[in-house]
Write a sequence for this structure.
């Protein structure tokens, strides 16, 4: 049986989404997994497009034209100038992608970048894609610890975040042992199901310099992280730590684990972007659908100039297809 195509949401129409989507189609049309764009076809002027009524039509037209499930923005779009008036369309596109994946009509959802500020101005109440997709898929069954959890993947490095978009000053107060345990469970189950790793190895980062230096530089490692590592081990998860974050990411150390559990945003994202700035992928774990996205933002400062690189989106499309294949 042929796997369904991917659904690719266009992201903020004033950003680089339309450019990188078209560039990704050019790169993948001859040999890549077929995908269809959910968005405004009138924003995709640099490649041949085919407006389709059903996602099942995408495979047949993909080699010759970019398939589009046309859903107009209904607002003026100026590259580099995001507008709250476009927010309803951006939200609709995400909802459509999730619905298609839940129905089995899309093998996975790949989301081009969105800008949070115009969405918030229009009343959007979620921190971002990850949390929104978690709610959109909440009623569907999932065989394991339910997410969403955010993974960043580049090369041989995968990092999974315990807290995501939280101010650094709040992280210590927010952290709990159960949060670390839950993130570890989600990561371990996803590594088995989605990445084909039979016995995943997790490295758990500490919060403080030198992982707290036995309490001299902070007690979070002793009171929160170490008990979480012990709890995961008791559940049969190969988890180790807490480790000083500054020694976890050299190549020799990366070879000893399959994912690093990181406690805050930059602890996870800096090493990924240092390893492969252009090719990192954001993967949402613990959902009944497969979802990936580029590991970068909307690029309003370069939108419309034709210089945006599609590398991360291409990597996100390829990884989504791989995960969908394993789940399939």
């Amino acid at each position: 049986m042929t796997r369904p195509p991917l659904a690719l949401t266009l992201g903020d129409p004033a950003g680089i989404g339309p450019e990188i989507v078209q560039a990704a189609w050019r790169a993948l049309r001859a040999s890549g997994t077929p995908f269809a764009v959910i968005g405004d076809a009138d924003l995709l002027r640099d490649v041949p497009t085919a407006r389709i009524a059903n996602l099942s039509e995408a495979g047949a037209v993909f080699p010759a034209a970019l398939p589009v499930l046309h859903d107009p923005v209904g607002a003026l779009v100026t590259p580099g100038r995001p507008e709250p008036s476009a927010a309803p369309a951006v939200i609709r596109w995400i909802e459509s992608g999730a619905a298609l994946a839940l129905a089995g009509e899309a093998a996975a959802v790949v989301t081009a970048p969105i800008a949070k500020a115009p969405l918030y101005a229009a009343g959007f109440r979620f921190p971002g894609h990850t949390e929104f997709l978690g709610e959109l898929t909440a009623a569907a069954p999932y065989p394991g610890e339910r997410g969403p959890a955010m993974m960043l993947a580049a090369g041989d490095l995968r990092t999974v975040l315990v807290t995501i978009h939280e101010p650094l000053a709040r992280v210590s107060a927010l952290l709990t042992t159960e949060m670390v345990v839950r993130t570890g469970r989600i990561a371990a189950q996803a590594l088995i199901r989605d990445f084909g790793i039979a016995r995943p190895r997790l490295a758990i980062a500490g919060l403080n310099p030198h992982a707290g230096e036995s309490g001299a530089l902070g007690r979070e490692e002793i009171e929160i992280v170490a008990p979480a590592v012990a709890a995961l081990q008791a559940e049969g998860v190969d988890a180790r730590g807490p480790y000083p974050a500054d020694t976890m990411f050299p190549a020799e150390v990366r070879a000893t684990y399959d994912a690093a559990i990181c406690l805050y945003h930059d602890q996870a994202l800096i090493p990924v972007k240092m390893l492969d700035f252009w090719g990192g992928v954001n993967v949402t774990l613990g959902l009944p659908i497969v979802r990936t996205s580029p590991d970068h933002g909307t690029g309003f400062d370069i939108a419309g100039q034709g210089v945006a690189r599609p590398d991360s989106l291409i990597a996100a499309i390829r990884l989504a297809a791989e995960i969908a294949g394993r789940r399939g």
User: Anything to note?
Assistant: The first strand starts at residue 6 and ends at 9. The mean pLDDT is 96. The CA atoms of residues 116 and 127 lie 7 Å apart.
